[in-house]
Amino acid sequence: MYIYTCLMNTPISPQSLIEQILKIQQMEHGSLCAVGKGPNGPYFNLNSWENDQNCCRYVPQDKVPAVQQAIEGYHKYQQLTQQYAQQVVEKTRAELAIGVKKKPRRKNKPRPQLPWPRKPKSSS
After folding, report:
1. Across the beta sheet with 31-38, what order do the strands follow?
2. What is the domain range of residue 24?
3. How many other CB atoms are there within 10 angstroms of residue 28's CB atom?
4. Tens of pLDDT along the chain (124 residues)?
């Protein structure tokens, strides 16, 4: 199952993002890797990083589509939570009037002019 979304100019509300997250029923992190070929097709492992080490799980052929869909669910979850966090950060900055402070320009001291290109020292 593939879900295609169109990018629109109208932002999605934080509540809508949470509702979309709640609709995700299955998630799995990692990637499917073909590890061999048998008489009925390829064999797959699910590779993921857990507890600071690589973890490999055998995936039966009949479960491959469901595992792939669960991996896509996890990617969708990550995307939606990133969007949610960004919106909350922007809202917080606006409420607290936090902006980027620019460095003031020096008015009194002119910058020293460096000769360019540098001239080689004389060998005298």
Report:
1. 31-38, 41-50, 53-59
2. 14-96
3. 19
4. 455 555 555 668 889 999 999 999 999 999 999 998 988 889 999 999 989 999 999 999 999 999 999 999 999 999 999 999 999 999 898 888 876 676 766 677 666 677 666 666 766 6
User: CA 88, 90, 96: angle at the middle one, nearest 5?
Assistant: 100
Tokens 């100019």 belong to which residue? 9
For residue 69, tell me if it sits in a domain.
yes
Q: What total number of domains does the chain contain?
A: 1
- Please indicate, yes or no, if residue 71 is contained in any of the structural domains: yes
pTM (whole model) above 0.90: no
Q: Specify the residue for token string 């690589």.
A: 54
For residue 3, give the H/E element and its range: none
Strand ranges for 2-103 from DSSP E: 31-38, 41-50, 53-59
